[in-house]
Amino acid sequence: MTEEKCPQLVDYFVVAGLAPGGSAPLDEEGQQRGGRVVEPVIDLAVIARGLGEEVPEGFTCIEKTQGGHPAGLSAGLINNPHMYLCYRRGHDKPPILDLGVLYEGKEVVKQGWNVIETTPYSRSASLSSGGPATHRTFLTYRRAPESQALHTLGVTDISLLLPSKGEVAPHTFCRVEKNLNTGIWGPALYLCYKRAVAKANALVYEAGLISRYPEADVESFPLPESVPMFCLPMGVTVESWPLNTKYQLPVFSTFVLTSACGDKVYGAAIQFYEAFPRESLSERQSVRLGLVSVVDRRPITNRTLQVKKSVCVLSHWPFFTVFQKFLTFVYRYSISGPHVLPLEKHISSFMHNVPFPSPQRPRILVQLSPYDNLLLCQPVSSPLLLSGASFVKLLQNLGPENACVLLLAVLTEHKLLLHSLRPDVLTSVSEALVSMTFPLRWHCPYIPLCPLRLADVLCAPMPFIVGVHSSYFDLYDPPTDVVCVDLDTNTIFQAEDKKPLSWRSLPRKQGKMLVNTLTNLMKTLEKIYTSGQEEATLEFLLTDYDLIYGRQKQLELEIQEAFLRFMSCLLRGYRAYLLPITQAPSDRTTDCSSLFNLQGFLKSRERTHQKFYTQLTRTQMFTQFIEECSFVSDRHACLEFFDECSDVEKPEEVRLIDLDEAHSGEHTVFIMPPEEPQEPDGSELPDMWSKCLLGHCYGLWFIYLPTFVRAESAKVRALQTAYEVLKHMETRKVVLPDEVCYRILMQLCGQYGQPVLAVRVLLEMKKAGITPNTITYAYYNKAVLESKWPSTNQGGRLRWAKLRNVLMAVAQFRQPIKQRLKSGSVRSRTGQDIFTCYLFFTIVLSLRYTIRICLPFLCSQCRPPGPRDTVSRKAVDENYNNVSPPSRGSLAGKLQQLLTPTRHRVSGRRATSVDARRSGGENGPVRRVSEQRLSRKAQVSSLSVGSDVDLPETTNLAFPLRKSWDTNQEGAGLEVLMSSCSLCRSCNSLVYDEEIMAGWTSDDSNLNSSCPFCSTTFVPLLNAEICDLGPISGKRSQGSSVGGSPQVTVAYLSPLVLRKELESLLENEGEAVLSQGQLLDSHSIIFWNMVWYFHRLGLPSNLLQLVRSSPLANQLAQVTPLPAVRVRLLWDTLTPDTDYWPPLYILWRIHSGVPMRNHSWRRHNHPFTLAFLEEVLRWVGMNEVHKGITLFLETIAKQPGTPKIQRSLYREMLFLTLAAMGRDHVAAFDKKYKAAYQRLSGSLGREELRRKRAQPPSPKAVDCRRSFLLPLEC
After folding, report:
1. Cβ distance 876 to 882 under 8 Å?
2. The predicted structure's pLDDT at residue 1203
3. Cross-strand pairs, 154
4. What is the Cα–Cα distance from 758 to 739, expressed in whole angstroms?
5. Of the ranges 426-440, 684-698, 986-1000, which one carries the lowest mean pLDDT score?
6. What is the mean pLDDT of the chain?
7. When comparing pLDDT for 640 and 980, which is higher?
8. Which of 849, 852, 810, 850 shows the shortest CA–CA distance to 833?
C-alpha cells in the first residue's frame, strides 16, 4: 500500500538585492530624505543658565516644548536657576538607548543606568529643591555597550511636553511617565524621546531579483514579482561605514502574500550586508557617501562600502522558526569556508527532501550539517486555521487593554497601521489580529509588512491592516484617518477630531471578562519571561522548568481561547436569526438582509451596546460570515466548531481549546544532509548517516526496554543498565531522532519507584542538549513526585548492611578454600592470602565505604592459576579488548611463523562443522563432545573468517551488561548463526553489511538498498540458522534433527524502517506482543531484525527466550529444561554458492587443516594455490598491497571464460588477512588498500578497476562499520 505523498515544505528560494542590470532609485523626495544622516544622541547635560552656565560646545539646548512654550526644567522652584536640558549627537561614542527620571530616596538606580548628578560646571543637577520634605529629582540614561554594531537602536530626538497646554507626544515618541516638576507650583512637565536606527551615509534603491530556485514557476503557484520588495521593504541601501565598524548581524523578517486564489503564502527572509565595489559608483554618489572629499575630490580610504542583500523562502506553511534557522545556516555557510559542498546543494536538498509534517511523519528532524539541525513537528490538530499568528507576542507588545482596543478596531473595520523596528514582530502581531476575530474573516487589504513602494495603500478609501517599518516615518507622515499602533512603545495614536477607541465600547460583560483573562495571562507571561531564570541548575529543573518551557505553547492557546470565548459570547444565538429561502430565488435572495434577521438579532442584544452591534453587522466581515453559514463553504468544519463553542452554557468554566499531545505521533523522520563528494586523497568529512542509523538502533532498544525490565527479576539493575546505555550513547555522540529514549526510562523510573535515577536521566538529557517536551516533562514530574525518595539519614540500618556485606563476602571467600583443603591442593600462600583479604575488608569497613565485591576476582586471588583460568582470562581479553595478546615479534616474523608450519599446525579456531554435527555413527557422541571442547577453546582465538567470519559478539562498551538470556554460555544447547550478507541479482555480487547500510535511504518506507558495484536497488536479506550444539551436561540430545538445521530468511530492514514497523506493531497489538511467542511466528521480520541489532550493539534482551520455546528449536532439541541459546553474528553468507570459486580465506583454512561447514569446497577446481595465498599475504605484510592486487588480477586474467567470483577483490584480500593475521589488522589493511587503489588508478585506470570490482568500500560504508563494529577499528 503506497503512502500518500506529503506536500512540499518550501516552494521557492529567492535572493533579492541590487539587481545585476541596475535597480531604479527611489523617488527624489525619498532619495533626499533617506540620504540625510540622522546621528544618534551620545551625550546629555543639564545646565543652570540662571547661574551663568553656558551651553557646552557641540551641544544643543532644548529651549522650547513641543508647543513652543519655555522648556525650563526648574520652573517649580522658588529660586529658579533656569535649568535646561542639552544633548550632543555624533558617532564617537555608543548611542544612548533610553532616558528616565529618578526620584532619589524613593527608588534605586537600575543596573546599567547613569545618573546626571552634576552640571558641566560641577553644580548639582537636581531638578528639585531637595529640602527635608521633598526628594531630589535627577535625569538618567542608559548607553549602548561598546561592542554594539553600527546600526543600533538609539535615541535620535528629545522633546519636552506640557500636558496642561494640550501638548501630546509626537508620533513614534516614547513618553517617560514621571513629572519633572516636583515643586509646589508650576505646570507638570514630561520628557519624551524617539528611538530609531542610527543610519550611516546611504543610497537607497528599489529591490530587485538576483536569483531564484527553481527557475521555472510552479504551475499551481507562480512566483510573485513583488517578492524582492517584501524581502527588502525599505529598499536596497548602499552604505559607507568606518573601517573599524563591527560587522552587522543579519535581521530576520517575515511577510504574508495572498495568491490569486486567495490562499496565504508566507515568506521568511534575512537581511545582511556584503562588500560593494567602489568602481560601480559615480563621482556624485561617492561624494554623497563620503568616499570622496568635497573640496579636492580626493578619495577617502578609511571607509568601506557595503550593500544590503536578502535571502528568502516562500511556503504555504508558517514555520517561521524553522525557516529562520535554515536561512541563518545558509548565511553562515556562505560567509565561512571554503566548503567541499556548494551552498546550492544544501538549498536544493532542503527544498526537495523536506516534506510537510503529516500524521505518517509527525516529526521531521533535518540534519543540515554535523552541528546544525532543526525539527519540524506536525501542527496541533485543531479546527482553527493554521496561521503565523503569535498571541504571546500580541500580548507582550500591546498589553491586555490595548489588545482589546485593537480587537474593537478590527471588528468595526478601522484603518490600522502597525509599525515597529522589528519586522518579524509585525507579521506575528498582524496575523494574530486577523485570527482573534474567528469566525469572522478580514476581507479588506491586508499587508503585514508593506514595502516602501506600496505605501500608497495607506491612502486607500477602505479599511486595511498594514504594517510598516518604523523608519517609514523618517520619510513620511501618517494619514490623519489612520489608527497608528507603535509596537515598540505600546502606544496607539488616533485622529484628534474623532472619539478615541476604548475597549469599554465592547459589550460590558464580555469585554470585562476578556480584559481580566488577558491580565491574568499577562502576569503569567511576565513570570515565564523573567530574565535570569534560564540557568540549568537542579533547582531550576525541578521547579521552574515548566514555566519557562512547558507553558509557552499552552499559554499561546490560552490567549487564543480567551478571544474565542469572547467571540462565542458575542455571536451567541445567531443561528436562530438565519432566514431560510422559502420562495423562488430573485436578485435579492442572496443578500445578507434576506439571509439574516438583522433587526431581531439587534433586539436580542443589550440596549447599551446597540451602536457597537450596529457597526459590527454593517461590516464586510459579518456579511461574508452570514453568507458562509447560509451556503456551501469550505469552512464548514471551522463553523461547526464555533457553533459548538457558542452553545456552551458557561464558556468561562469550560476549556474550548485543549493542547493534547498524548495522541500525537512520536515517529520521527530523519533527513540527512546532502552527501559530500570524496576528496582526492580518498577521505571525506565525518558522515552523519551512520550516526543516524546508530541513534535509531538505540531508539529501538529503548522502545523494547519496558518488556525487558518487566521480564527481569532485578528491576533496579535493569534500569541502571539502561542509564549506563544512555551515558554510553552520550560518550559516542549518538544522534537521537527524538527524546523517546529518555521519556521511556523516566516513565519506568516512576513505575518502579526510582526518583533519583529519573533526576539523573533528566540531567543527562540536558547534558545532551535536548529540551524535554510537555509529555516527557509530565512523566518526569510524575516519577519524582509520586515515587518514594530514599532517606538521606544514614542510620544504623546502613551500617548493619555494610557489616552484613563484609561477613557474607568472607563466607563466600572461604568456601573454595575449604574445598581445596579437602582435596589437599592448597599452597602455603593460602593463609597469607586469607590474612590479606581480611585486612582489606577491615580497612574498607573502617573507612565506611560501600562494599562492592567481585567474587570471581577474590577467588582467583586465593587459588593457584591453572589452565582453565588462563583460557577464561584470554577469552575476556579477546571479547572485550581490555588486554592485548603478547607480541610475537614484528609483522614479518608473524608471517614467517604463519607460513612455515602451515600443514602441521593444529588450529585453535572453531573446528565444529554443521556437516560433522549432523553425521551419526558409533563415535558420534564422543566426537561431538571433543569437538565441543575444541569449540570452547576456539573462543579465545582470533576472528574466524569465511562462512564462519564472525562479527564481534559485543562491542567494547563502557558499561557491564548482564545477559539474562545466556547466563551459562558453556552449557548452551542451541546456537543461532546470523548473517546479513546478501546477493545482488543484477551483477551477481555479494554485498556486505556496511555496504548495505550505506545504500539505505532516509525514507522509512523504502526497504531497498543499492549495490555498490552496479547501483541497482535490491532488498537485502537477513539469514538465520539454528544449530544444535550437542549434549548438555555430557548427555547427548535424543531429539536432534536429522533433516538439517532450520533456516530463516527475512528482509533486512533499515533501523528507520524497523522502528516505524515496531511502533505500528505496538500501536495495533499492544506492548505484550513483544514477550509472546507469536512475535516469532507472526512478525518474524521484526523479531529477527531486533535480535540482529541488539546483538550488534551488545544490548541485553529476552528475545532469545522466544527462540527456546519456538517450533524451530523443538525440531533440534526436545529436552527438559529447554536448552540455552546463544547467537553468533557472521560477516559472510551462511549459504555460499559452491558453483563459484571458493574465496581465498576458505582456501587458506583448508590448507591449514580446519574443517569447514561445507566440504564441497575441497572438490572444487580453482586457480589459487597455497603459494599464491602465501605470496598475497607476504605483499600485505610488507605494505605493498598494490602488488597483491596486481597478482590477483593477473591470475584471474589467465583463466579462460568469466571468473567465477562473487566477492570483490577488496573483500577477498580483507578476509584472507583476517583469517591469517587476526582482527587487529583491519584498520591498517583499509589504509593500505586505499593507498594501493589510488596508486593503481593512475596506471590501470579507475574505471577499469571498478569494472573488475577492485574498488575499496565507500567512506560512508567504512563509517558505518566504525559506528557499529568498534573492535574492527583495532
Report:
1. yes
2. 76
3. 196
4. 14
5. 684-698
6. 75
7. 980
8. 810
Q: Are strands 446-447 and 464-469 parallel, antiparallel or unpaired?
A: parallel
Alpha carbons 1178 and 180: distance in angstroms, whole number: 96
Radius of gyration in angstroms for the set of CA atoms belonging to the chain, rounded to a whole number: 40
Q: What DSSP state is assigned to residue 513?
A: H
Q: Are 450 and 384 in contact (CB under 8 A)?
A: no
As given in the structure block, the three cell numbers for residue 214 are 527553481
C-alpha cell at position 850? 560501600
Dist CA 240 CA 201 (whole Å): 6
HSE-CB of 772 using CA atoms within 13 angstroms: 31
Average of per-residue pLDDT across 18-33 = 54
The answer to whether the beta carbons of residues 80 and 188 sit under 8 Å apart is no
- Give the tens place of pLDDT for each residue, 864-877: 444 334 333 333 33
Nearest partner of 925 among 311, 259, 933, 987, judged by Cα: 933
What 323-329 contacts at long range (C-beta under 8 Å, 24+ apart), as own/partner pairs, is: 323/10, 323/268, 324/252, 324/268, 324/270, 324/424, 325/372, 325/374, 326/350, 326/368, 326/374, 327/252, 327/268, 327/269, 327/270, 328/250, 328/252, 328/270, 329/368, 329/369, 329/372
Instruction: Give yes or no for a contact between 67 and 165, defined as CB atoms under 8 angstroms apart.
Output: yes
CB within 8 Å of 1045: residues ≥ 6 apart: 914, 918, 1025, 1026, 1027, 1028, 1116
Residue 1049: CA count within 13 A, CB half-sphere: 9
pLDDT tens digit sequence for 965-980 = 443 445 557 788 888 9
How much is the pLDDT for 701? Answer: 92
Render pLDDT for 676-732 as a digit per residue (tens, 0 to 9).
555 444 344 446 788 888 888 998 999 999 999 999 988 999 999 999 998 888 888
> What pLDDT score does 717 carry?
92
Using DSSP bridges, classify how beta strands 1047-1051 and 982-984 pair: parallel, antiparallel or unpaired.
Answer: unpaired
Q: What is the pLDDT of residue 1053?
A: 93
Please report how many Cα atoms fall inside a 13 Å half-sphere around the Cα of residue 360, on the Cβ side: 13
Say if CB 249 and CB 233 are below 8 A apart.
no
Helices 740-751 and 774-786, packing angle to 10 deg: 20
The three-state secondary structure class of 366 is: strand
pLDDT in tens, 927-945: 333 343 333 333 333 333 3
Which residue matches cell numbers 577467588? 859
Give long-range contacts, CB 8 A cutoff, 24+ apart: 702-706. 702/740, 702/741, 702/744, 702/745, 703/740, 703/744, 703/1059, 703/1062, 703/1063, 703/1066, 704/1062, 704/1074, 704/1090, 704/1094, 704/1101, 705/744, 705/745, 705/748, 706/744, 706/747, 706/748, 706/1071
Looking at residue 99, its amino acid is L
